[in-house]
Automatic annotation (TrEMBL):
One of its GO terms (cellular component) is plasma membrane. It comes from Streptomyces luteoverticillatus (Streptoverticillium luteoverticillatus). This is Multidrug efflux SMR transporter. Residues 126-141 have a biased composition (Basic and acidic residues). The keyword Nucleotidyltransferase does not apply. GO terms for molecular function: transmembrane transporter activity. The chain crosses the membrane at residues 12-32, 38-59, 66-87, 93-111. The keyword Phosphoprotein does not apply. Residues 116-141 are annotated as: Disordered.
């Protein structure tokens, strides 16, 4: 069980790093002016590829629906916040309310994600581990 928790913690860490790449991808996409500026264009390509790669590693353990939703949610919130800080984009009360809802949803998904035997076996298969063997239980006489 401890190994599965470690795998889960690793997957969530990879997912958070992937989300940071997603934020950089979004911001550099705005700065590259249609891929006409070299440095922002290179940053866009590296951040986009890196984010998708790290997401794919996290999805070896996490459910795709949960992982992808969290990844895009964090990316969306980060893009709005850093877009305002770096590019002077507006943040309205309505945007703040919606961002809080996204953050609440992401936290809720993280806190309610449970491990199931099927998900555990899929994680074992993806990691190349043999099937878990439970010890035989004998009835008390």
């Amino acid at each position: 069980m401890g190994e599965r928790r470690t795998e889960s913690a690793k997957a969530w860490t990879l997912l958070l790093i992937a989300a940071a790449f997603e934020i950089v991808f979004a911001l550099s996409s705005a700065a590259n002016e249609g891929f006409t500026r070299l440095v922002p264009s290179l940053i866009t390509a590296v951040a986009g590829g890196g984010g998708v790669y790290l997401l794919s590693l996290a999805l070896k353990t996490l459910d795709v629906g949960i992982g992808y939703t969290v990844w895009t949610g964090i990316g969306s919130v980060g893009a709005v916040v850093f877009g305002a800080l770096l590019f002077g984009e507006s943040i309205t009360v309505g945007k703040v309310v919606c961002l809080v809802a996204i953050i609440g949803g992401v936290l809720g998904l993280h806190m309610t994600t449970e491990s199931t035997p099927e998900a555990d076996q899929a994680a074992d298969d993806a990691a190349g581990r043999p099937e878990s063997v439970e010890p035989e239980r004998t009835a008390k006489q």
